[in-house]
Amino acid sequence: MSATYRIVSQEESSALALTVVAWTVSDADRAQRMLDITGLDPQTLRENLTKPATLRAMLDFVLDHEPDLMACAKDIGVAPEKIAAARRGIA
To answer: Where are the domains of the chain?
Structure first.
């Protein structure tokens, strides 16, 4: 049975997105892959972490690569569906 996750607020979605960002950059190879794919540099990422477009891009990075999605969800203790719900919850 698959659970449906609904993020009730933009704040909750943003908080989960920041957790995903922290997970992403906790591994140097994964962080570099994210920078290469998104075209961001570390300074630009830091300067824009509060912007919805940046948070959506970071969630998309994880959602678009199932091995990362599954590993991230496991490591941060949430269901993968909750990460997807967070993506939908950021306006």
So the answer is: 28-89
